[in-house]
Amino acid sequence: MGGTFNSALSARRLARRFHSGASELVIFEDLSLEVARGELVAIVGESGSGKSSLLHLLSGLDRPTAGDVYFEVDGDENEPTASPSRSLASLGEEELARFRNREIGFVWQQHYLLPEFTAMENVMMPLLIAATPRAEARRRAQVWLDKVGLGARLDHRSGELSGGEQQRVALARALVTEPHFLMADEPTGNLDERTGVAVFDLLARLHQQHSLTSIIVTHNHQHAARCDRRLCLHQGRLQEESLHV
Asked: Structure pTM?
């Protein structure tokens, strides 16, 4: 798979194995993947097939047992001598955390909003952690809440928002730092069908408008069919599927 287009992300011979006593559980091994710049890729498969584990490896949230993941990124103005090609295995924990915070936005099935904070404060959080001045963080958070259709809900706490609204806040929070990559793990899994379609519509629109490279793990084959490619993880192997439902 791959090699014929401009890859933004390459996974080479990934393996993930767990040891439990004398036994070894192999999630997958010798798994390779290439994602083109600007692609929206869906990963589907049965529960327990390792989809979330793979997404964690691709995004640097976990380390593979073997293999490596490479990102092609724009030069960092704070690290002018850095190569645009980044091997995640070559990064120490602090450098990897900085890379994730700068380059990758995450959306999960659970929104993980901080309940004691407003929508505005939740979206500001990644910027404040990155030492962005508070006034600038607030301005950028408001821009992104407007983009996800919640400009009138800035001061509402998580519990005052519907499930779809909570997930929209989570999407704004993921993208407020303007990353180049979006990783989403079942982003509509907790929503009813109508709300899930609306959230996926928004995600797909933002992907296009902001030239993101996005990987989405989903059980929803209708959503997967709207992506540029659909990959099925089955028995430790990735297979490309037809986009026809």
From this structure: 0.90
